[in-house]
Amino acid sequence: MRKLILTYIKFWWKSKNQYSVHSPFVYNLISKCFYDKTNYSAYKQIKIYKKALLTNKNTIEVTDLGAGSQILKSNTRVISHIAKIAGTTANRAKLLFRLTLYFQFNAILELGTSLGIATHAISLGNPEANITTIEGCPNISEFTQETFK
Length: 149
Description:
By secondary structure, this protein is mainly alpha-helical.
């Protein structure tokens, strides 16, 4: 953990801001997308969706196709715990929204839907986009499809 903190401090110390970037594409991406401080109404919708998941006390049987959870040991999990531990953070969801809004992608492929927090943010960024999202666990996939409806 200490090494990670030291690496971050070194990066922060040496890093530049958007004005040191020479490429117009990268400069625009950084200044108009990454550093965009606009308070979009979609942020509230993302927060409402995640809050609904965080208050959902229903349980679901999970088929874990990866290395397994280090935190949740049982295959029967509460939706709110999955949203809290495995769900996309609010800041990442906002970034995905801004990236989708900035680039206006026509087709999007998402691997690992989980409860669909990121998918929801992406769909708010461009409602016209064709989003294909894949989730390995059939029960989580079914739950998320029902939630999206």
